[in-house]
Every structure is written in C-alpha cells, then in structure tokens.
C-alpha cells in the first residue's frame, strides 16, 4: 500500500473524504500520518477516530524552512510517498516542494486558474462568474499554480451566498479529491508540460 501524508489546519472535511474512500478501498493507498499546524483542528480528531496517527506540529517560532524540513522528516519516517494538502493554511517552502516534487496535491475551491488564493468562493461570487467549482492540482512553488489533475464545475445561482456556494463546491471537492489521489497513486497520470492527462477519466 502506498503511504499518504495529509497536512491540515482545520475542519478536515476533505481529510474525511479521503478516509472514507480509503475505508471503501477506493483511495489507492493508505493515510500513514496526519499533521496539523493548529492544535485545535477538528481534523486531528477525525483521523484519530479512524485509527490514523495524527499529530500537532507548531510552526510558531520556527522559520518556514525549518518547519517544513521537520514535516519532510516526519513524513519520510512514515514512508510517505504522496502528500495531500487538505485545508493546510500555509505556503509551502521550496524545501517541502522539492522533497516531494510532483507528489504533492492540493484541493482548491475554484476552477483554477481563476481565483487562486484565499476566499476563492467569495472572489467568484463577487466577480459574477456563472460557473465555479473545485480543482485538484499538483503543488509547485507558486500559489495554486501547479498542473491541474481534476476539476468539477459548480453552477453559481442567483440566490447564492458565499456559504451556499461554498457548501456545493465542498461536495465537489469531496468527490474529486479521492479520485485524483487514486489516479496518481495508480500511475494513471501522465504529465505533458503542464498538462496532466488522467487515464480512465
Ligand atoms: C476547502 O475548501 C479547500 O478547498 C481549501 O480549504 C478548505 C478546507 O476544508 N483549500 P476542510 O478542512 O477540508 O473541511
């Protein structure tokens, strides 16, 4: 079984979607460690309930490089081959990106390259787009800029608020994140330049 490390900072609903897929044998790997940089993150409890090692690692008082080097060491100790960012509210340093080059995924609540960064659902709503959605992409040194693995579109409705739109996008995130992880771990992703071709999708 290929080992996955999940980095979180909060709620952990995407982590839960990965856990649920793993339970059903649909993840293509096994979550070996969950690390949160926020002690009170509810996601830690979700992992523990599922019997997955889950730890809090404080980034405060450390340089970004030093903190990320610790994360790399800890994930290597657990044999991690794929890193999943799931609401991890920190920019990654080149140290972490290089250590797992091409093997870090993130889920973002918009159809990238539209609306990168924070508050993507609000950005989409305020811009007036009629379609937004969810994106799973490979993480590179930029902000939400890496090659796109999977996307699902979500219609923006006239009556939508940030909350209602976010809730529908979140459902899409939960559908595509486990599928993208599985495709990558099963070797069904072929990269051509910045284009990722996913076999069977
Ligand atoms: C999700 O909307 C994800 O796209 C973004 O942060 C949020 C995390 O939610 N990167 P959760 O912690 O997985 O519930």
Any overview of this molecule?
The chain is α/β, with parallel strands linked by helices and 201 residues long. It has a single domain (3-190), classed as Rossmann fold (3-Layer(aba) Sandwich). Helix content is 35%, strand content 25%. The chain has helices spanning 13-23, 42-49, 64-77, 94-99, 120-127, 162-185, and strands at residues 3-8, 30-36, 54-56, 80-85, 104-108, 131-138, 148-155, 189-192, 195-198. Helix 2 (42-49) links the parallel strand 2 (30-36) and strand 3. Helix 1 packs across helix 6. 5-O-phosphono-beta-D-ribofuranosylamine binds at residues 10-14, 43, 86-87, 107-109, 170, 173.
CATH architecture: 3-Layer(aba) Sandwich
Q: What name is given to the CATH topology?
A: Rossmann fold
Helix percent band: 25-40%
Mean pLDDT: 98
Distinct small-molecule ligands in the complex: 5-O-phosphono-beta-D-ribofuranosylamine
Order of helices and strands: EHEHEHEHEHEEHEE
């Amino acid at each position: 079984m290929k080992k996955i490390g999940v980095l979180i900072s909060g709620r952990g609903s995407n982590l839960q979607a990965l856990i649920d897929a793993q339970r059903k044998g649909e993840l293509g790997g096994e979550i070996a460690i969950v690390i949160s940089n926020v002690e009170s993150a509810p996601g830690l409890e979700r992992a523990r309930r599922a019997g997955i090692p889950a730890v809090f690692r404080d980034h405060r008082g450390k340089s970004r490089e030093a903190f990320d080097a610790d994360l790399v060491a800890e994930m290597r100790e657990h044999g991690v081959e794929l890193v999943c960012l799931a609401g991890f509210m920190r920019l990654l340093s080149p140290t972490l990106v290089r250590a797992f080059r091409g093997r870090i995924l993130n889920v973002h609540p918009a159809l990238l390259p539209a609306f990168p960064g924070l508050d993507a659902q609000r950005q989409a709503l305020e811009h007036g787009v009629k379609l937004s959605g969810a994106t799973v992409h490979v993480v590179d040194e930029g902000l939400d800029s890496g090659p796109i693995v999977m996307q699902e579109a979500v219609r923006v409705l006239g009556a939508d608020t940030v909350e209602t739109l976010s809730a529908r996008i979140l459902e899409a995130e939960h559908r595509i994140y486990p599928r993208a992880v599985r495709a990558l771990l099963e070797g069904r992703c072929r990269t051509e330049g910045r284009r990722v071709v996913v076999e069977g999708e």
